[in-house]
């Protein structure tokens, strides 16, 4: 967990260099990637690498995915970031081998200290382990780990870790079944 120093709720938790980097990133993605067809995934991966994303193997990142701070993202081989998914990488997000983030899913690594007068930003890592599947429009809260082979149902809100080989769904998400792989 990382807490950012802020004197007031209106102060940015980021340095001027970080804010400039985020601004350059937003325009680079818009101009260089957001319009590209699916087969240009290698181009999008190149741009992500240039902005500090740690990439191993060949993941897939949809052209309409939104990544807030790319240098806080780790993508492993065959990880898939779906259409209009939102990786709010105020803190690190790791997406492991063959894990899928479905369309419009939202992974949020930031929250605020509501007991501090400045509502200081708090960031916590999100980890999506290998072969996990995050359903459409699911919301993953800061600090959550989705373990191997787990499935998170569509529109679920995940506030705590999801164990390996289970299916979790609902708001808040609860285990509803075991996942038996064939």
Produce the secondary structure layout.
Layout: E1 2-3, H1 16-32, H2 41-50, E2 54-55, E3 60-61, E4 66-67, E5 73-75, E6 80-81, E7 86-88, E8 93-95, E9 100-101, E10 106-108, E11 110-112, E12 121-123, E13 126-128, E14 133-134, E15 139-140, E16 145-146, E17 151-152, E18 157-158, E19 166-170, E20 173-178
Parallel strand pairs: 2-5, 3-6, 4-7, 5-8, 6-9, 7-10, 8-13, 9-14, 10-15, 13-16, 14-17, 15-18, 17-19
Antiparallel strand pairs: 1-12, 11-12, 19-20
Architecture, CATH level 2? 3 Solenoid
Low-confidence spans: none
What is the count of β-strands? 20
Q: Please bin the fraction of helical residues.
A: 10-25%
Distance between the termini: 37 Å
Looking across the biggest beta sheet, what order are the strands in? Answer: 3-6-9-14-17-19-20
Order of helices and strands: EHHEEEEEEEEEEEEEEEEEEE
> Overall pLDDT, averaged?
95
The backbone outline, from C-alpha atoms, is globular
Oligomer: single chain
Q: Compute the CA-based radius of gyration.
A: 16 Å
Write out the CATH superfamily name: Hexapeptide repeat proteins
CATH topology, which one? UDP N-Acetylglucosamine Acyltransferase, domain 1
């Amino acid at each position: 967990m990382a807490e950012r120093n802020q004197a007031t709720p209106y102060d940015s938790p980021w340095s001027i260099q970080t804010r400039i980097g985020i601004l350059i990133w937003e325009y680079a993605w818009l101009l260089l990637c957001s319009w590209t067809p699916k087969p240009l995934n290698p181009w999008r991966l190149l741009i992500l690498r240039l902005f500090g994303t740690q990439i191993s193997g060949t993941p897939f990142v949809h052209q309409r995915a939104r990544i807030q701070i790319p240098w806080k993202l780790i993508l492993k081989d065959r990880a898939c970031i779906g259409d209009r998914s939102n990786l709010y990488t105020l803190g690190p997000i790791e997406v492991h081998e063959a894990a899928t983030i479905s369309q419009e899913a939202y992974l949020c690594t930031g929250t605020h200290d509501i007991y501090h007068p400045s509502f200081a930003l708090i960031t916590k890592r999100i980890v999506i382990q290998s072969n996990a599947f995050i359903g459409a429009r699911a919301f993953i809260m800061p600090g959550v780990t989705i373990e191997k082979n787990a499935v998170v149902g569509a529109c679920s809100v995940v506030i705590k870790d999801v164990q390996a080989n289970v299916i979790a769904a609902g708001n808040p998400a609860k285990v509803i079944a075991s996942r038996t792989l064939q």
